[in-house]
């Protein structure tokens, strides 16, 4: 009756498994005009552990399960296509519900591309959010942008906050990357407050210190038990055959 209270568990509804999610990821890349034939493929089930802990502790397990079934897509199958000794590779994240929740195209720094201004690059990112990821821009609040000049192109990263998701001091955020004049990445993540992170690190530090202190009596007890066993063996006070019969 009280198992879930003693051992709280996150609820995940799997509509697609690893094999089912791979074609969805490949279709997403093909729709963007990228062909991964000849690439090596690897896949793993992944999630942001820090975000999971933050949601559990700040929202409670019941609301976290509600959030992760809706606006926050914490869990995903992460698929990667790569070639040995080649910088360019692709990663696509597919949720257990079969939705693409992130992707990344890794390019060499020297790869050629366009040098868009910030307004044009942001327009490209907003078009991707609306047309590809089906996000309502009216529900998003623009947070910031970062630009980086490469040898033969200019890269941008734009971040928005989901306005209708209340996480207290935290927030659900979306990031779109632009390499030259192409959308090169998309990520959904939980922005964790720095104050909460510092407090949690202090808590973990105290727990680890307590664990070390707890181990000292255990080590002393083991040493004492070993010393007592050796002493009993020297006195021939241990029924070895009887002990071995219980052991086997």
Describe the structure.
The chain is elongated, with a radius of gyration of 26 Å. The model has no long low-confidence stretch (mean pLDDT 91). The longest helix has 41 residues. A hairpin with a 4-residue loop joins strand 5 and strand 6. Helix 3 crosses helix 4. Strands 1-2-3-4-8-7-6-5 form an 8-stranded antiparallel sheet. The chain contains 7 helices and 8 strands, in the order ααβααβββαββββαα. 40% of the residues lie in helices and 27% in strands. The chain is of the alpha+beta class. The two termini are 38 Å apart.
What's the structural blueprint in terms of helices and strands?
Elements (H helix, E strand, L loop, with lengths): L2 H4 L11 H14 L8 E8 L1 H11 L1 H8 L6 E8 L6 E6 L5 E7 L11 H14 L8 E10 L4 E9 L8 E9 L2 E10 L2 H41 L5 H8 L1
Antiparallel strand pairs: 1-2, 2-3, 3-4, 4-8, 5-6, 6-7, 7-8
Helix pairs in contact: 3-4
């Amino acid at each position: 009756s009280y198992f879930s209270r003693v051992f709280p568990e996150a609820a995940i509804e799997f509509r697609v498994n690893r094999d089912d999610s791979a074609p969805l990821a490949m279709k997403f890349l093909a729709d963007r005009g990228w062909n991964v034939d000849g690439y090596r493929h690897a896949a793993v089930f992944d999630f942001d552990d820090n975000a999971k802990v933050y949601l559990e502790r700040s929202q409670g397990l019941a609301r976290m399960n509600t959030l992760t079934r809706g606006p926050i897509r914490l869990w995903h199958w992460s698929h990667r296509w790569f070639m040995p000794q080649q910088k360019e590779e692709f990663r696509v994240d597919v949720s257990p519900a079969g939705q693409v929740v992130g992707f990344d195209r890794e390019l060499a720094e020297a790869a050629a591309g366009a040098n868009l201004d910030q307004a044009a690059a942001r327009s490209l990112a907003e078009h991707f959010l609306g047309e590809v990821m089906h996000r309502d821009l009216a529900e998003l609040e623009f947070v910031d942008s970062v630009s980086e000049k490469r040898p033969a192109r200019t890269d941008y990263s734009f971040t928005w906050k989901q306005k209708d998701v209340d996480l207290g001091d935290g927030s659900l955020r979306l990031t779109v990357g632009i390499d030259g004049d192409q959308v090169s990445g998309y990520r959904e993540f939980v922005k964790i407050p720095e104050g909460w992170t510092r407090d949690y690190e202090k808590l973990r530090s105290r727990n680890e210190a307590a664990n070390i202190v707890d181990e000292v009596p255990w080590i002393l007890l083991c040493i004492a038990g070993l010393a007592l066993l050796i002493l009993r063996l020297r006195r021939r006070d241990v029924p070895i055959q009887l002990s071995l019969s219980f052991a086997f």
